[in-house]
Design brief:
heterodimer; A: alpha/beta; ABC transporter transmembrane region fold; Rossmann fold; 22 helices; about 60% helix; B: alpha/beta; 2 domains; 4-stranded antiparallel sheet; 10 strands
């Protein structure tokens, strides 16, 4: 774990203090043996007992204090490690392609960065003081017993192999059973989340947890996998846990036998029995942390997986773009290796002109837009802005040049003003108001209780989808990038909003290179060029009137488009 | 500890008897732990009788000591096994039962309750929290219980043997639990603080991830990262502060029983020096002082994580008590006529409806139009009892919807929502959601009608293709068409279409309208649509404006009397005719 390197000092300190605590914990046994020896010798002067009693007191209290200090230090350490990892992950996510980011839902990312990482706290925080101390104590004690009397030392070891044997039996099939369980648990978790998120549909179709078979199955399978595992090893586990620390079983009779034979003194006898009694209990404690240590490994593996996700490879050529036409040259792309969305796609979108892309759903229209917006890199071929391959410019520059407007409009839980300023931090209030007026959102913003200082998304300030969209368009206006991508940006809006959104889009696209993916063909009949995409291939391109003549697909789409509206009018 | 056990029983349901058995065997195990102490005592007795009374140690004594020790080990293994066996069965059954119980409850909770935050809480509860209770929580409670019981039993063993020591143990136990109670109060406060820290961190992280595309497109990565960094660091500082506050309390707790040990030793030595106890007894007491608190020490080491068990139990019992709606016992719905009488409703504190009245005749199509925020969707949610009215009443078949059995009420509705939610299941099962008994042929038939057969067949495994993440690999239009097919399968008297075709591509829309027309024949239909041309044939159009019904009538009537409707039609025509410049 190279994460630990940074904190070597703290680790060393925590270990050192933990060991001090261990030593303090051993001292009282010696002092106690001393007391027993005095008593056996019949000494009744209290003064000679004072010192060993004080040693016991100091030893006991010292062990507690050092243990707490060590725990605190290692907690601190654990929190720092988690902090480091969180920050590293946050940066990593910002370097990933949007495509990669979107493979997990935002909830999953958050869960990972908060909950999953937190799972490392307890193990790391306790592993140093608990595991180190609890492993060292038995070793030290066992050695001392051997030094005092090797025969009792041997007797003290007898339960060890028996305990270990049962532990082995307990671990039988661990890998497989644990994998089964984890699979079942994961499956149950996703099913539960899905069930809850779909609660409206559950209600609408009159289902419930117990009648939604998938949920019941997942819950029961989770229980059964865990229960069958635990019950099958339950006996071995308890046997191992009970036998291992039961050193008295052999130590007591054997020491008594040795004493009977007269080959051991009372002081050593008592001390051996005491030390032996204490010798393996810590091991059990240490073992109880082993499981949680396994958790850390799982988390670390997950972190590694994320940290190894491929980043978008981009150059950092920033200055050479002088024109903003967009060219696809033999571009191939697929979300996975098996199925390409398109192969050898080529087209050109002229600077400061409107290029529309139409096609049936699933034809790959949106993918084209997302490639231009830098969500992914093309697998093969070249995508150029001006005459520069986008792969040669940084992602930041790419993002700066392109504004992508879709139906999903994210606004931060900040004031509207702050949301606007994201696009241009030094924008003046006037500029912002100007942009909002153009995007027809100034009026409704002013009608909100706190105007531009209204915090988006707080109770009572729920903006409608259309209102949110207009704010994001205003934000895009403020950004003023030379290229604008509109991805079905006017779907989902009510009559009031639709006209307003259209007005704001008109303002946004002025003098820009625009690529528009449109639902309604009538909106794009004035486009300078319309590209018809079918099954990942360009079937035809040209103006509206040209295409009506030469593209079968376009003609068909147009026909059904107008018939919907004509039919409606007939009604 | 008592409250923990009480809380555990409260959610245990029919597993409580197994829990009791687990605790019983733990008590028995503690007694065998006492037997182990007995073996040591016996051993010491033999040794010291030899020293002071010169009584010889016999080989029989060795056997007896071995026998007593063996009895203790065998007893402990058996009790431990029985306790664990019962524990696992109780715990995992309890976990599963609670998951299903809470899952069932959710259906009877007002949709209004499910804010995003709460949804996160509920899913966290069903998954991690119950999971944690299973793996950690119950163990914590068990260890705490054992710690106290074992020490108490040790004290009981000790009392007849040496009153003073017995009392010292009991006193230590008492003071320890007292300090613990004080410490718990503080810890519980801190737990709350920890939770708020976590919620904060969650919110900031979520915001960061959700906004990542915006952040990137405005090149604002650095600023957002600084903000996130600040939150991450703050949460660390908060966490470590909590630990620092807990540490001294834990220290005091541990001190108390270490002092207990010293007290036993000191009292034994003093009494030995003043010759009030014999030497063998002094030694036995001194040695036992190290042993009698072992359970208590174990319990002490659990103090730091006791909060986990408390949180788990509290979270679960809170989920078990979600506010569910009340229902009546009417099961039959004969005439699907809907009457909305003077209904009042508000979101949080913002009033939306202040007495709205509306009548929807059976077998007719009623369209609702209005600007965003006018209350169209809310009205549908109230009629189907997804939410409950604050005042007034909604009648179906002349009966208040609150008098229906909820399941029976819901079975009369079919919905198509604007936000389509599909399950991570096969396409077929998603469609069959509308009617689990539907045959494959029926599924295919509705899929054809809903214009989704062709694209489904183009999927890798056709109808058996599993939709990933609710169908994120499908386009919005495709998802919506599947949701329409799903709705078509459900037999019901009332159909609610909320922007049902908003993201359907025009080339599919034509046939889809035909299919919907078939679906809606003879049913009571409520349609919300912004494509006004699709609703002009409705029997009745309701124009809503800011939570009020502005006017009701047919297309023709409204064109004459409703200004808002006129404006909508005008804007809609402009919108359709909109051509990007």
């Amino acid at each position: 774990m190279d994460v630990l390197k940074k904190h070597l000092g703290q680790i060393f300190f925590a270990v050192f203090v933990a060991v001090l605590g261990v030593l303090c914990g051993v001292l009282p046994y010696f002092a106690m043996a001393k007391i027993v020896e005095h008593i056996a010798a019949g000494k009744i002067n209290f003064m000679i007992y004072k010192e060993p009693i004080l040693i016991i007191l100091c030893g006991l209290l010292g062990s507690v204090i050092f243990h707490e200090i060590s725990t605190l230090t290692s907690h601190n350490l654990a929190f720092r490690i988690i902090e480091d990892e969180r920050k590293k992950l946050a940066r990593k996510i910002s370097r990933l392609s949007m495509g990669e980011v979107e493979k997990r839902s935002s909830g999953e990312w958050t869960q990972f960065m908060v909950e999953t990482l937190d799972k490392m706290e307890q193990p790391i925080a306790h592993v140093i003081p608990e595991v180190i101390a609890n492993v060292i104590i038995p070793i030290v004690l066992v050695i001392i017993i051997f030094v005092l009397d090797w025969r009792i030392g041997l007797a003290n070891l007898v339960t060890l192999p028996i305990g270990v044997l049962f532990s082995f039996l307990m671990m039988g099939g661990y890998e497989e059973k644990s994998r089964n369980y984890q699979q079942a648990a994961k499956n149950m978790n996703t099913t539960a989340v899905e069930y809850i998120r779909g609660i409206q549909v559950i209600k609408a179709f009159n289902k419930s947890a117990s009648s939604y078979g998938k949920f019941v199955d997942a819950v029961n399978k989770n229980r059964d996998s865990m229960l069958s595992w635990y019950l099958s090893v339950c006996f071995y586990m308890t046997a191992a846990m009970e036998i291992l620390p039961s050193t008295m079983l052999f130590v007591l009779p054997i020491s008594l036998f040795l004493y009977m034979k007269g080959s051991i003194s009372v002081g050593i006898l008592i001390m051996c029995v005491l030390l032996s009694y204490a010798s393996y209990k810590p091991l059990i404690k240490a073992m109880s942390h082993m499981d949680t240590m396994a958790n850390v490994r799982v988390v670390i593996d997950e972190i590694k997986t994320v940290m190894n996700l491929p980043e978008l490879e981009r150059g950092d050529n920033c200055n050479t773009i002088s024109s903003y036409g967009i060219t696809f040259e033999n571009v191939s792309f697929g979300y996975n290796d098996e199925k390409k969305v398109f192969e050898n796609l080529s087209f050109h979108a002229e600077e400061k002109q409107l290029t529309a892309i139409v096609g049936y759903s699933g034809s790959g229209k949106s993918t084209i837009a997302k490639l231009i917006a830098g969500y992914w890199n093309a697998d093969n071929g070249k995508i150029c802005i001006g005459n520069v391959n986008v792969k040669d410019i940084s992602l930041e520059k790419n993002m700066e040049l392109v504004t992508y407007v879709s139906q999903e409009n994210y606004l931060f839980k900040k004031t509207i003003l702050e949301n606007m300023k994201l696009a241009k931090p030094d924008a003046s209030i006037e500029e912002i108001e100007q942009a909002c007026k153009k995007a027809s959102c100034h009026d409704f913003i002013m009608s909100l209780p706190d105007g531009y200082n209204t915090i988006v998304g707080e109770a009572g300030n729920n903006l409608s989808g259309g209102e949110r969209q207009r704010i994001t368009i205003a934000r895009a206006l403020l950004k003023d990038s030379p290229i604008v991508l509109l991805d079905e940006a006017t779907a989902y809006s009510d009559p009031d909003n639709e006209a307003e959104i259209q007005k704001s889009i008109d303002a946004l696209v002025k003098n820009k290179t625009v690529i528009m993916i449109a639902h309604r063909l009538s909106t794009i009949i004035r486009a300078n060029k319309i590209i018809v995409v079918t099954n990942g291939e360009i079937e035809a391109e040209g103006t509206h009137s040209e295409l009506l003549g030469k593209s079968e697909t376009y003609a068909k789409m147009w026909k059904s488009h107008i018939s919907v509206y004509q039919q409606a009018e007939v009604k | 500890m008592r409250d923990l056990i009480k809380k555990l029983y409260a959610i245990a349901g029919k597993e409580s008897s197994k829990l009791s058995r687990m605790l019983l065997f733990e008590v028995l195990k503690s007694i065998f732990e006492g037997v182990a102490l007995g073996a040591i005592m016996l051993f010491l007795l033999k040794v010291f009788q030899n020293i002071f009374e010169h009584r010889e140690v016999l080989i029989q004594d060795v056997y007896i000591v071995f026998g007593v020790a063996m009895l203790s080990v065998v007893g402990k293994i058996l009790c431990s096994y029985m306790a664990d066996h019962n524990k696992y069965i109780a715990t995992y059954n309890m976990g599963a039962e609670n998951r299903l119980y809470i899952g069932d409850q959710l259906k009877r909770v007002n949709m209004g309750y499910f804010s995003n935050n709460r949804l996160g809480n509920i899913s966290g509860g069903l998954t991690t929290v119950i999971g944690e209770l299973e793996t950690v929580g119950v163990n914590i409670i068990e260890t705490l219980f054992v710690g106290v019981i074992q020490t108490a039993i040790m004290a009981l063993f000790m009392l007849p043997f040496d009153m003073v020591t017995g009392i010292i143990i009991l006193a230590t136990l008492f003071v320890g639990m007292l300090s613990n109670a004080l410490f718990q109060k503080k810890a519980d406060e801190l737990t709350k603080k920890l939770q708020s820290l976590k919620i904060n961190l969650n919110a900031t992280t979520l915001e960061y991830v959700k906004g990542i595309s915006v952040i990137k497109s405005f090149g604002k990565g650095k600023e957002m990262i600084t903000e996130l960094d600040r939150n991450i660091s703050e949460s660390r500082k908060g966490f470590i502060n909590v630990e620092k506050t807990v540490a001294p309390a834990a220290l005091i707790f541990l001190f108390i029983f270490k002092l207990g040990i010293c007290a036993i030793i000191l009292s034994s030595v003093l009494r030995f020096c003043s010759a009030s106890i014999p030497p063998y007894k002094a030694v036995m007491l001194i040695v036992s002082s190290f042993i009698v608190f072992a359970g208590f020490e174990m319990a002490g080491s659990m103090q730091n994580i006791r909060g986990v068990a408390v949180q788990n139990l509290d979270a679960i019992s809170k989920l078990r008590e979600l506010p569910t709606i009340s229902e009546g016992n009417v099961t039959e719905l004969n005439v699907a006529k809907v009457e909305v009488n003077n209904v009042k409703f508000s979101y949080e504190k913002q009033s939306l409806f202040d007495g709205i009245t509306l009548s929807i005749s059976e077998g007719e199509t009623t369209a609702i139009v209005g600007g965003s925020g006018s209350g169209k969707t809310t009205l549908c949610n109230l009629i189907s009892r997804f939410w409950d009215v604050d005042g007034g009443e909604i009648l179906i078949d002349g009966k208040n919807i609150k008098d229906f059995k909820y399941d029976n009420l819901l079975s009369n509705f079919t919905f198509v929502f604007q936000d389509v939610y599909l399950f991570d299941d096969t396409v077929k099962n998603n469609i069959k959601f509308g009617n689990p008994d539907a045959s494959d042929e029926e599924v295919m038939e509705v899929a054809k009608q809903a214009q989704c057969h062709d694209f489904i067949m183009a999927l890798p495994q056709g109808y058996d293709t599993v939709l990933q993440e609710g169908g994120s690999n499908l386009s919005g239009g495709e998802r919506q068409r599947i949701s329409i097919a799903r709705a078509m399968l459900k037999p019901s008297k009332i159909v609610i279409l909320d922007e049902a075709t908003s993201s359907v591509d025009p080339e599919n829309e034509e046939q889809l309208m035909v299919a919907l027309h078939n679906l809606l024949k003879g049913k009571t239909v409520l349609v919300i649509a912004h494509k006004l041309e699709t609703i002009q044939g409705a029997d009745q159009i309701v124009v809503m404006d800011k939570g009020k019904v502005e006017s009701v009538g047919t297309h023709g009537e409204l064109l004459e009397k409703s200004q808002i409707y006129q404006r909508f039609i005008y804007q809609r025509e402009r919108a359709i005719g909109w051509k990007i410049k």
